[in-house]
Amino acid sequence: MIKNCEICGREYVAQRSTAKYCSNRCRLMAQRGVAFNGELEAPDVRVSMTQEEVLSLVGRAHDAASDLSRASMLTPAPLCLSLKAVSQKLSDALRAEGL
Ligand SMILES: [Zn+2]
Q1: Could you read off the pLDDT of 18-30 as tens digits, one per residue?
Q2: How close is the Cα of 77 to the center of ligand 1, in Å?
Q3: Across residues 8-15, what is the average pLDDT?
Q4: pLDDT, position 55
Q5: Contact at 8 Å (CB) between 36 and 77?
Q6: Averaged confidence pLDDT in the chain
Q7: Rounded-to-integer distance, Cα 88 and Cα 58, Å
Q8: HEC sequence for 42-94
Q9: Nearest to residue 83, comparing CAs of 73, 96, 95, 93?
Q10: Cα–Cα dist 97/57, whole Å
Q11: Do residues 68 and 83 touch, judged by C-beta distance below 8 A?
């Protein structure tokens, strides 16, 4: 079955229905609590997006930032610290771009 990796978001073929990650690398990152920590690959620049697609992604980024911020309050250390830092970086990045 095709699933989306919880860490990098890429689609992958899951061997088991309980699989959450595309690779050992992503599974390890999840265990270490460093999801979204600068490991995402830049999208292919040859692919152009419509303005609606970009705006919907920006909306999802805002949602992700607030989800991460909420998660950081409900998660034990050290994961909470990573989540907090990432949500802060995400909000800062969005604000810096005027989004
Ligand atoms: Zn992955």
Answers
A1: 999 999 988 888 8
A2: 23
A3: 91
A4: 84
A5: no
A6: 82
A7: 15
A8: CCCCCCCCCHHHHHHHHHHHHHHHHHHHHHHHHCCCCHHHHHHHHHHHHHHHH
A9: 73
A10: 14
A11: yes
For residue 46, what are its two tokens? 């040859």
Q: What is the pLDDT of residue 35?
A: 47
Q: Is the preceding peptide bond at 76 cis, omega within 30 degrees of 0?
A: no
Tell me the longest C-alpha to C-alpha distance in the chain. 42
CA 82 – ligand 1 centroid, Å: 18
Q: How far is the CA of 65 from the centre of ligand 1 (A)?
A: 19
CA distance 18 to 95: 36
Q: 26 CA distance to ligand 1 centroid (A)?
A: 5
CA proximity to 91, closest of 61, 71, 57, 46: 61
The pLDDT score that the predictor gives to residue 60 is 86
Find the 6 Cα to ligand 1 centroid distance in Å. Answer: 7
